[in-house]
Amino acid sequence: MLYRALLAALLSATSPLSHAASTQLSGYVEFELRHFFNDPLDPVQASTHPSAAVEPELYSRWNDGDDSITLTPFARVDHRDSERTHVDLREANWLHVGDGWQLRSGVGKVFWGATESQHLVDVINQTDNLEGVDGEDKLGQPMVNLVWLTGNGELSLFWLPYFREREFAGLDGRPRSQPRVDADQAAYESGQQENHQDFALRWTASFDLVDVALSHFHGTSREPQFRPGTDSSGNPVLTPFYPLIDQTGLEFTAALGNWLWKLEAIRREGFGDTYHAAVGGFEYTLVGLFSSDVDLGLLLEYHVDERDQQASSPFQNDTFAGVRLTFNDFQSSEFLAGIIYDNDSYAHLGFVEASRRLGDAFKLSLEVRLFEQLPPNDPLYSQRQDDFVQLNLAYYF
Amino acid sequence: MNRPLLSLAAILLLLPLPAAAATLPDDGGRGLEIAREADRRDQGWGDSESVMRMILRNAHGDSSERKIRTRALEVQGDGDKSLTIFDEPRDVQGTAFLTFSHALEPDDQWIFLPALKRVKRISSRNKSGPFMGSEFAYEDMASFEVEKYSYRYLRDEPCGELTCFVVESYPQDKNSGYTRLLTWIDQAEYRTQRIDYFDRKGAPLKTLTLADYQQYLDRYWRPHRLEMVNHQSGKSTSLLFDQIRFNTGLSDDDFNKNSLKRVK
Question: Pairing state of beta strands A236-242 and A187-188?
């Protein structure tokens, strides 16, 4: 017995596990340059916006990996927009893994969803609206999350004891709404405001080629409604209002050969009239294009929202078409371009996302966002002049 | 329960043994017999964890290194389950794959993208595509199942100091990137020593050599150095195992979409 314990200790002490240490610091520092092509709607806005950001992550595990903590602060300094200069705690949580269950407590980040061009079901974390325009950057959310494994899936319960307000571009910021949003005047349906206790649950399972998930959220809507108001100087502003909602969500993915079929649908009560919305479509992958190592993905998704022209989202009857190139090279080069086309108004949003590793530790990313032919009743109308190109150079440590 | 969350893992996976198709000159079932014997000798390993480095080289001599950990679980009567975790390059640190491989059905595969905390199902038809920019295709990394190929024994041939069976094998999956494989298996321990891969046009594509075999649990042989050379592009990839452990206490609960999110 003693011999075995000694042997085990010796083995673990001599393990050349340099890249599987029990405590590790990683993360990135990045420099970003955004350039807007068109004259701003508001003359105080500029065309070129440099900024820098850092996101270190400290991870430590013990108890044979059954316990771990993750600490991930984030900060950005923006040269033009003092509101976009912001800090956040993306993660600060303790994870305990039991036999068939796990508990995560603290500030965390959770993704729900299946589709590519819109994330309807994803409702746990507030969007970090200052970081990007695709809604994929999130603020850390205080939570207690209990998960039970169920064989082919899991049941996940969330207690969300504190609400994070959405942040908005300042007067000098771009892209931004006209008039600007004054986040200091945020109002709530709940008298407890950001201390309202929110709850959610989600069941997910995999059946051979199919993944499904059903979820329900009760609490303060992460998406605000906007009301006209004035700031302290009497200038017109929009003020955010956060109603209490109940949202039921469905996620579905099926892998059939080269085809991935995807669907998300929601029913939301409390955000004005009860409504349903959905996004669904496919991704078709051609492996080894022209006998090369390049994979070509073709994406098509359709968006529908039964509020139609009254929808708070711009995607009430829209079609997304996209092309993804995965080069499978040393530098992990990737390219994604797409267009979201409004079938009613002919407005369209175009985007390009491309990235490539430089050396071992740097990554260069390019992003382009175009807002074209937006009619005055489109929720994005006031960003019609905010087409931009963005370059990021990140160093990973 | 002993759950070495971050130790290492196993890839137990690479031994495409070849051999016999009905329409080919009859080898008396000998090729299939050799494949079955190799498979039989490798049964019962249970679970394992490995730590490895993958060194990619192009025709100009540039190289790039990836650090990878894998965990694998033997599944009786079906393909194995595996988790593959990237530690380097650092921009993809924490990216992980979960694979449920199957003998004849398409594999089930998911990727975890740590920046978005997103688990995404991926198309299983990419088996002929390169694994992380290397000369190993996904199908080269998948677990070996006898049913994946038909076999034909060709001849005996010296291989180094050993004598090998040379067996030809034909992928049963039409999505394979290969028309056939030539495999050298030593007669002493039924270890794969070399594989020649032929592309969809039947032309020589790649050669894999497997070296530095070590025996685990007094039974299971694992190569610690694998060299894949692409004859058409001049590129090559070395796969170096720094550590392999067995009986690490992994179970079914360690191979699901939930565990994929917390593997790092």
Answer: parallel
What residues of chain B lie within 8 A of the CB of A59, using their CB?
A: 264
**Structural domain harbouring B108:** 30-261
Tell me whether residue B11 is in a domain. Answer: no
Inter-chain contact B90–A26, Cβ cutoff 8 Å?
yes
Mean pLDDT of A195-223: 96
pLDDT in tens, A217-271: 999 999 999 999 999 999 999 999 999 999 999 999 999 988 999 999 999 999 9
The phi and psi torsions of B259 (rounded to 5 degrees) equal -65, -30
Fold for domain A23-396? Answer: Porin (2.40.160)
Tell me the two tokens of residue A376: 């005055």
A30: which 2 tokens? 């990045």
Q: In this structure, is residue B8 part of a structural domain?
A: no
Q: Does a structural domain hold residue B241?
A: yes
Q: Which residue does chain A place closest to B65, by CA atoms?
A: A360
Mean pLDDT confidence for B50-76: 93
Q: Is the separation of the CB atoms in B63 and B81 below 8 Å?
A: no
pLDDT at B192 over 90: yes
Q: Where are the domains of chain A?
A: 23-396
Least CA distance to B127: which residue of chain A?
A: A287
B43 CA: distance to closest CA in chain A (Å) = 24
- Band (pLDDT 50/70/90 cuts) for residue B25 is low
Exposure on the CB side of residue A306, measured as CA atoms within 13 A = 12
Asked if the Cβ–Cβ distance from A258 to B257 is below 8 Å, we say no
Contact criterion met (CB < 8 Å) for B7 and A283? no
Residues of chain A above pLDDT 70, percent: 95
Question: The domain that contains B78 carries what CATH number?
Answer: 2.50.20.10
pLDDT digit string, tens, across residues B251-262? 988 998 888 988
Using pLDDT thresholds of 50, 70 and 90, give the confidence band for residue A196: very high
Q: How far apart are CA A380 and CA A387, in angstroms?
A: 12
CA–CA dist A81, B238 (Å, integer): 48
A39 touches chain B (CB under 8 A): no
Q: Would you tell me which residues 286-345 of chain A have a C-beta closer than 8 angstroms to some C-beta of chain B?
A: 287-288, 293, 295, 328-332
